Amino acid sequence: DTAVSQTPKYLVTQMGNDKSIKCEQNLGHDTMYWYKQDSKKFLKIMFSYNNKELIINETVPNRFSPKSPDKAHLNLHINSLELGDSAVYFCASSRHQTSGTDTQYFGPGTRLTVL
Amino acid sequence: KQEVTQIPAALSVPEGENLVLNCSFTDSAIYNLQWFRQDPGKGLTSLLLIQSSQREQTSGRLNASLDKSSGRSTLYIAASQPGDSATYLCAAGSNYKLTFGKGTLLTVNP
């Protein structure tokens, strides 16, 4: 009964490949997010979706394409992987987008290593 | 553009001590301030959320305060325990997103 789940947990791949990370939340939340945590542990937002609609695209290269098939899912597809894409990617969700009362719930993360 | 700074970057204390973690943010137009805990190799766990209209929130041994006008928040941990060892992140909620600080790595020694 995990609230926010991500697959896979670990992903090791070669430079130039295309890969996807999946995220699902069973909390009935309207808003989902993708964050990147780099090697220095700095956590930064990449994308935000509200009811399947893209709200935030935080100057992320267009090799990264999020897709939200429904409110409970937000997948991240990455084309032509580069060494600098190696990081931990976290998915999160919140009930609403801007309510002052809503916390964000995070998934366990996907550790991506590009060789 | 919102920027969040956390001081200190790392803190090591003996068990039982009370401690304070600091967080500052540059844009006071926030709708909330959140504190999270991250254990090594794990995701983030929400500890406390302070709405912009509130001054503080408490949960067990944790107390977080917010001074929006000065752009500051503190997380107070009472009677620290080894199980409190983790990275503590503060995040300012504004412009449809959370902006995180780089975290404070806390080590509580038995």
Describe the structure.
In chain A, strands 2, 4, 5, 6, 9, 10 and 11 form a seven-stranded mixed sheet that branches. In chain A, strands 1-3-8-7 form a four-stranded antiparallel sheet, with no helix packed on it. The mean pLDDT of chain A is 91. Chain A has no helices and eleven strands. Chain A is mainly beta and 115 residues long. The radius of gyration of chain A is 13 Å and the shape is globular. Chain B has no helices and eleven strands. In chain B, strands 2, 4, 5, 9, 10 and 11 form a six-stranded mixed sheet that branches. Chain B has a five-stranded antiparallel sheet with strand order 1-3-8-7-6, with no helix packed on it. Chain B has 110 residues and is mainly β. In chain B, a hairpin with a 2-residue loop joins strand 6 and strand 7. Chain B is globular and about 40 Å long. Chains A and B meet through strand 5 and strand 10 of A and strand 4, strand 5, strand 9 and strand 10 of B.
The end-to-end span of chain B amounts to 41 Å
**What is the mean pLDDT of chain A?**
91
Fraction in helix of chain B: under 10%
Low-confidence stretches of chain A: none
Shape of chain B: globular
What string, H for helix and E for strand, traces the elements of chain A in order? EEEEEEEEEEE
Give the helix tally of chain B: 0
E-strand count of chain B: 11
Radius of gyration of chain B, in Å, reads: 13 Å
Strand fraction of chain B equals: over 45%
